[in-house]
Write a structure and sequence with these properties.
- By secondary structure, the protein is mainly beta.
- Among the domains are: 8-51, no CATH class; 277-447, no CATH class; 449-554, Sandwich (Immunoglobulin-like), CATH 2.60.40.1680; 557-639, no CATH class.
- 1% of the residues lie in helices and 36% in strands.
- The protein is built from 1 helix and 33 strands.
- The protein has one helix spanning 425-428; strands spanning 8-10, 27-30, 35-40, 47-51, 89-94, 100-105, 116-122, 125-130, 162-166, 178-182, 267-282, 291-295, 306-311, 314-330, 338-351, 360-365, 375-380, 383-399, 451-453, 456-465, 469-473, 479-488, 491-501, 506-512, 522-526, 531-536, 541-550, 560-564, 582-586, 597-598, 612-614, 623-627, 633-638.
- It has a 6-stranded antiparallel sheet, with no helix packed on it.
- Strand 19 and strand 20 form a beta hairpin.
- The longest helix has 4 residues, at 425-428.
């Protein structure tokens, strides 16, 4: 009877024999798990190992020599995998076009359109770098432009060229990323870019921006434009253009004369629509001293505070308050039209030879400011004379046309209405302003400085002082009446002082109101030389004084030389107390009694103090004097 040999076995899942259960080389089975075990010996000692069988799960490591062919391998894999193919990998995220991925792939392919660079810098290792989608860019006359790696390519607009980008296919050609260039912001003035335009044009737009076809219906024969001559002759209603203004917004075909040495009859107009105290007039007449006429919005001639010739093409017109209107600058017409410079003299005589009895006459001083002389007289058809009360240096402009304000023109023909139309003591007091006939002044008129009526002079001042101080020095007069008001807080008094003096003695009489509060701490005195002094015993007081001075006989005034400082403005009243930077002459040997300063010892040329504070080299009395643009002392400060 044949014997049946059975191997050791177990039907318990997961049961595994041990070395004590098996002899070397003996097999054992787990019939539930389908596994085969064998007892083996090795360098580590005897052990029980699993044998590989199909359709079961084996544990432990397997070392194979040779190839493995399998449809599915699960778990981890150790080895060089050089024979593996179609190994899957997962890519998730979005690309530059917005496509989203979360998918397994088995192949990664590179092509020349991706911008990726692949290199084998080390054996067996692939290096992948991001290259550039841009090719090398060459511009004639310039170096090569190359963008690599993460470089950005920048396009910059310049010279009036605008550059924009768009992600919309605006021209429907299939491309949605667009780079646009626009030249709409190029300067509207083309005269610096175009040397010659030949041929003909079809139409002009209002901005002169488009030319096309022919323009025979507009201009019969337009040959060329140059930088200096636009058109050489006049046809139909076209006005001849000259100078350097080809086609601009301000100089159209008949907008008036151009700049840079304009001819006789040239004029320019400024329309000041926004009220302003200063008008800047770019007349571009090429002449430093043209004739000016100023009109308000009601077409009435008005007189500004000052007109300054900045240069041969620009002037500024100044008013004491904001003003709107028009300004006309003209070079006159005819065979004449001229400007002549004069040195300091009381009479200027000019032979203009224009064969007209009544030319246009404008007078400038050496500071390029229009001034009003005492009188302008037309001697005959070819000669005019200008008269001043004191010697004056400057320029005289004469041309054919109308008339400006002079000694022979009645102010009644000029509208002086409004507040502050006539001002500036420099223009009125120093050089004289002849007003003839019966005149009506409408509105409030402001006169800065003093006013003279025959042998009488009127002036006023308001000062706030804490100590005794001279208020007025009237040494050139015989006597004066002073109307005053003094106040400090709730304390006030008004009064009048009548006074005369002869240089040796003085007498004065004061009458006043009753006090509001108490004003006993303030008294007045008048010196032998006509100085009104305010004497302050205590406190700070505001002194308001109006004087009316009389004097018909000349008083000899000696000139005293002073070395004074550079002028300073508030609050630096005392910065120039010991100054000696410039030499001037005062009309008194006493620093506190000087009423006016001059630049010469004959006391004919006033010193322009610019309303700044000055001290002298000896710091007399520790007081600086405030001197206005006409040399008058208008204030002082005790340092």
């Amino acid at each position: 009877m044949a014997q049946i040999v059975k191997l050791r076995r177990s039907s318990v899942s997961g049961q595994k024999p041990t070395n004590t259960n098996l002899q070397l080389g003996e097999l054992a089975l787990n019939t539930t798990d389908g596994k085969v075990f064998m007892a083996v010996s090795g360098s580590g000692g005897p052990s029980v190992q699993e044998l590989v069988v199909t359709n079961t799960v084996n544990t432990g490591s397997i070392s194979l020599v040779g190839a493995i062919s399998a449809s599915v391998i699960s778990g981890s894999f150790i080895g060089n995998a050089s024979g593996l193919t179609s190994v899957p990998f997962v890519i998730t995220g979005s690309d530059v076009d917005g496509n989203t991925y979360d998918k397994a792939f088995t192949k990664l392919q590179f092509d020349d359109g991706t911008g990726l660079n692949v290199s084998e810098s080390a054996p067996g290792t692939a290096f992948i770098s991001i290259g550039s989608h841009f090719r090398d860019i060459f511009v004639s006359g310039s170096g090569m432009l190359r963008a690599t790696g993460s470089d950005a390519f920048e396009v910059i607009g310049d010279g009036g060229v605008d550059i924009t980008v768009s992600n919309t296919d605006t021209n429907t050609n299939g491309y949605t990323k667009e780079l646009k260039f626009s030249t709409t912001n190029l300067s509207s003035s083309l005269n610096t870019r175009i040397e010659n335009i030949t041929g003909s044009f079809n139409s002009f737009t209002t901005s002169f921006g488009l030319f096309s076809g022919s323009v025979n219906e507009h201009i019969t024969a337009l040959d060329n434009f140059t930088s200096s001559v636009v058109y050489s002759s006049q046809t139909s209603s076209m006005t001849v253009l000259s100078a350097s203004y080809a086609v601009t917004a301000a100089f159209a075909l008949n907008a008036g004369a151009g700049g840079g040495g304009a001819s006789d009859g040239a004029y320019a107009e400024l329309n000041q629509t926004t009220p302003s105290t200063t008008w800047t007039f770019n007349h571009n007449l090429g002449q430093k001293y043209p004739i000016f006429q100023i009109f308000d919005t009601n077409d009435n001639v008005i007189i500004p505070s000052q007109i300054t010739a900045v240069n041969s093409d620009t002037a500024t017109i100044t008013f004491p308050s904001a003003q709107s209107g028009r300004a006309i600058a003209s070079l006159g017409t005819g065979p004449g039209g001229m400007t002549q410079q004069f040195s300091a003299a009381s009479t200027w005589s000019l032979n203009h030879n224009m064969a007209t009895d009544y030319p246009i006459v404008t007078v400038y001083d050496n500071n390029r400011k229009i001034i009003f002389p005492q009188e302008i007289k037309s001697i005959n058809a070819n000669t005019v004379e200008v008269y001043f009360s004191t010697p004056v240096a400057g320029h005289l402009n004469v041309a054919k046309g109308g008339h400006i304000i002079s000694g022979s023109i009645s102010v009644g023909n000029i509208n002086l209405s409004g507040s502050g139309i006539v001002s500036s003591s420099t223009q009125i007091t120093n050089y004289g302003f002849a007003t003839t006939g019966s005149n009506i002044f409408n509105g409030n008129q402001v006169i800065n400085g003093t006013g003279t009526i025959g042998i009488a002079t009127l002036g006023s001042k308001c000062v706030t002082i804490s100590g005794s101080s001279p208020i007025f020095n009237l040494s050139t007069f015989d006597g004066a009446n002073f109307d005053y008001v003094i106040k400090s807080g709730s304390n006030m008094r008004g009064g009048m002082i009548m006074s005369v003096w002869d240089g040796t003695s003085s007498v004065y009489n004061e009458t006043s109101t009753m006090d509001i509060g108490s004003t006993s701490g303030v008294t007045f005195t008048v010196s032998n030389s006509g100085v009104l002094n305010a004497n302050i015993a205590s406190g700070t007081w505001t002194i308001e004084v109006l004087y009316k001075a009389l004097g018909c006989t000349a008083v000899n005034v000696s000139a005293t030389n002073y070395l004074i400082s550079t002028g300073y403005t508030a609050p630096d009243y005392c910065s120039g107390l010991f100054g000696s930077e410039q030499s001037v002459y005062g009309n008194s040997s006493d620093w506190l009694t000087i009423t006016r300063f001059y630049t010469n010892s004959s006391l004919t040329t006033p010193f322009n103090g610019g309303s700044k504070y000055y001290g002298n080299s000896t710091a007399d009395y520790g007081i600086t004097l405030q001197i206005d643009s006409s040399g008058f002392v208008i204030g002082n400060y005790a340092c």
